[in-house]
From TrEMBL:
Pfam families: Phosphoesterase. Keywords: Hydrolase, Signal. Residues 381-394 have a biased composition (Low complexity). Residues 1-15 form the signal peptide. This is Putative acid phosphatase.
Length: 408
């Protein structure tokens, strides 16, 4: 009887899945604040990379943590340059709206979250050992389009819910996972977080049901040393990684926006009309779908250390209203901008926009000059990709790098 019930549940979960072109399930797990070169030397991470693809040119978007999380589901960080409480108005859509077009299930799992949809800034561990769950590591909660909708709010759950969903084979098709402030390395060390990560992921990699058509992205939110370009270690793992690619490197330019474009590409989703459009799709997926990524000419000018101007920037001189999405973009899903986005921003369809679909990266410069600031143009189809001169940038790279550790 028990066997029959379990079989029925498993079948139901699988039947509800919307098949993707390269994977049926995407799980992303986020660790905190480490430079590429340091993580690259950790033996636990090296062991894990043998099971997957190491992305050697994956960049965080800015500092500190919170904007990186927010960008990964909304396609911009809106100038955010801090970790405190923020709210983004309801007319800004996210990945959730894209998923709703095909009833693709999703959840966020946050270790130590006191209860589903908890909206506070954080919670303290019961044993008094420090911060546990923090809002700044939750990409969804600051979007009113999620937090003001009870159905969506209920999808923000804890690691205990993850465990029971794995056991019952009822995992959603997309999950963002943030370990607590100790396990993610924020308040501990690189080694502590790497130990946790290996012990957490290894049993999952051995679980056939979990692995089936699953792509796992293990990533850091940002690097630790500010003046360095924001390069981080990211690994693609799971059953969706072909055996012959295990232990290989992929040096395509990626950012957290590549999560959005990869999901759009995999499921043929519409787009948000923001920086999701033009971001490179993970090669393991692009190779299957025939999507053509841009050569990584941007790498030369990447800095991504300071936030550009925007509506969430604390510096009043750097305030700008929320940009209108570019309603004319076609994304990696082969579709236009989501209907809800079009409806919400109809009155702004004549506004200038920084989103041109080119995939170029933007940052806040070095504190004085800002050559990579977003450029506002008339809305229109995707701009063609132009190359950045690399002589100036290699000179910038050779500049002596001051080491300044951070704690955001
Ligand atoms: C962890 O980090 C937070 C924020 O940086 C800090 O307030 C807290 O005291 C730290 N320590 C512990 C043990 O949680
Ligand atoms: C609330 O969320 C559900 C599930 O995502 C969605 O179907 C519904 O349209 C949302 N309601 C509003 C008012 O946005
Ligand atoms: C990580 O694991 C190794 C081997 O089990 C152990 O020696 C080390 O103390 C652990 N490091 C931390 C920071 O927990
Ligand atoms: C992959 O990149 C890492 C980090 O740069 C390097 O140490 C390693 O040798 C590379 N491996 C392969 C197979 O090229
Ligand atoms: C994608 O295809 C290119 C060109 O055939 C190949 O060089 C690359 O290794 C492939 N990468 C992945 C991750 O499949
Ligand atoms: C989006 O919402 C914000 C906050 O309510 C509002 O100020 C702005 O005018 C809205 N944008 C459009 C195009 O309606
Ligand atoms: C990147 O920006 C930071 C400002 O946070 C600056 O200190 C650093 O020199 C810049 N790095 C490069 C390579 O331009």
């Amino acid at each position: 009887m028990r066997f029959l019930l379990l079989t029925a549940a498993a079948t139901a979960a699988t039947a509800a899945y919307v098949p993707g072109k390269a994977f049926d399930r995407f799980i992303t797990i986020w660790l905190e604040n480490q430079d590429f070169d340091k993580v690259d030397k950790n033996s636990r991470i090296a062991d894990l990379s043998k099971e997957g693809i190491l992305l050697t040119e994956y960049y965080g978007l800015t500092h500190p943590s919170q904007p990186n999380y927010i960008a990964s589901v909304g396609g911009d960080y809106f100038g955010l340059d801090h970790d405190s409480f923020v709210q983004i108005p309801e007319n800004v859509s996210t990945l959730v709206d894209l998923f709703d077009t095909q009833d693709i299930s999703w959840k966020g799992y946050f270790e130590g979250l006191p209860g589903p949809g908890f909206m506070g800034e954080g919670s303290t561990a019961f044993d008094g050992s420090g911060w546990d769950y923090v809002r700044k590591h939750n990409p969804f909660i600051s979007y009113d389009s999620v937090s003001k909708n009870g159905t969506r709010l209920a999808n923000l759950q804890s690691f205990r819910d993850f465990e029971s969903d794995v056991k019952a084979n009822t995992l959603p098709q997309y999950a963002h996972m943030s370990p607590d402030m100790l396990n993610d390395g924020h308040n501990t060390t690189l080694e502590y977080a790497a130990n946790w990560t290996q012990s957490f992921i290894t049993p999952l990699l051995a679980n056939e049901q979990f692995m089936d058509k699953t792509l796992v992205l293990l990533t850091y939110d940002e690097s630790a040393t500010y003046p360095l370009p924001n390069r981080i270690i990211s690994l693609l793992l799971g059953g969706a990684v072909p055996t012959e690619l295990k232990g290989t490197n992929d040096s395509t330019l990626y950012t957290h926006y590549s999560i959005l474009s990869t999901l759009e590409n995999n499921w043929g989703l519409p787009n948000l009309g923001r920086y999701d459009v033009g971001a490179n799709v993970f090669d393991v997926v692009a190779n299957k779908t025939g999507y053509v990524n841009h050569a990584p000419e941007d790498i030369a000018s990447v800095n991504n250390s300071l936030s550009y101007a925007g509506f969430l920037n604390l510096d009043p001189k750097l305030y700008k209203p929320i940009p209108a999405p570019n309603l004319q973009l076609i994304g990696a899903g082969g579709k236009g901008v989501h209907e809800t986005v079009k409806a919400n921003w109809k009155t702004a369809s004549g506004d200038m926009t920084p989103y041109d679909g080119s995939g170029h990266l933007h940052d806040g410069g070095d504190g004085t000059a800002d050559p990579n600031a977003p450029v506002y143009k008339a809305q229109g189809p995707a701009a063609s990709v132009t190359s950045t001169p690399s002589s100036t940038s290699s000179a910038r790279r050779r500049r002596r790098v001051r080491s300044r550790e951070r704690v955001g």
